[in-house]
Amino acid sequence: MSFIDHLEALRWHIIRAAIAVVVFSLGAFFAKDFIFHDLILGPSRPDFWTYRKFCELGQSIGAPDLCIDKINFDIQNREMSGQLAMHISTSFMVGLVLGFPYLFWELWRFIKPGLYPQEQENSRGAVFFVSALFMTGLLFGYYIAAPLSINFLAAYNVDPSIENQIDLQSYMSTLTTMSLSCALVFELPMIVFFLAKAGLITAEIMTVYRKHAIVIILIVAAVITPPEVTSQIIVTIPILLLYELSIHIARRVRRDATKKLNAELAANQGVSE
Length: 273
Known about the structure:
This protein is about 75% helix and about 0% strand. It is mainly alpha-helical. The protein has two domains: about 1-180, no CATH class; about 185-273, no CATH class. A two-stranded parallel sheet has the order 1-2. Helix 1 (about 5-30) crosses helix 4, helix 5 runs antiparallel to helix 7 (about 125-155) and helix 7 crosses helix 8 (about 170-185). It is flat and about 85 Å long. Pfam families: TatC. It is found in: Cell membrane; Membrane. GO terms for molecular function: proton motive force dependent protein transmembrane transporter activity. This is Sec-independent protein translocase protein TatC.
């Protein structure tokens, strides 16, 4: 295929992915009550699933302080077209998130023909694992990281006389930043997998620099969470587990490559004899 033909193929992949995002966005736009009342504004109410589970945990271990009876802030809209603009932008973001697996699949369909057969074989299941890790990270951010951050920031005050009247844009920014940051961080195993396949990283390198990685992970957790120890620990633990999983993935990739090389050498030696 010529360069123009490649661009034409890419254009149709982009068009199909854009149509999928638009369809999901329209669905989210018309499902306004569920998207906003149940999904977006859920972490702002004490009956949210995460708060109820923490309360149940507190009651079982004798720590009633884990129960949250009130979220100490009111969400306000300060612009005439603010709610309409937020409705449109949020619907698009929901459509982008829901359409991510299909979007990545279309991108993979464009890239895959340019790979060697062995590379295609090695990357089998890439769309599934990338999508699964993305959604897992998103759910972790939405149900764990974001509610803890919102509750901490709402409960923190410098003086009891100051009321928390939070702008809608500020609330949405906190919720989406926490959720999407976790979704991206959870892609670490797949990033390491492809880097290991390309020979750019090994399990030995990751083991040697584990201490440095822990420091970086703590910094990342501090950036995407409020300055509160509990939230940072809860976010840090799964990232550390993902890093250890990535070391095993890199080791497995190296072992498979060694086996393949030995098999090829044995086959070549048999032919020469």
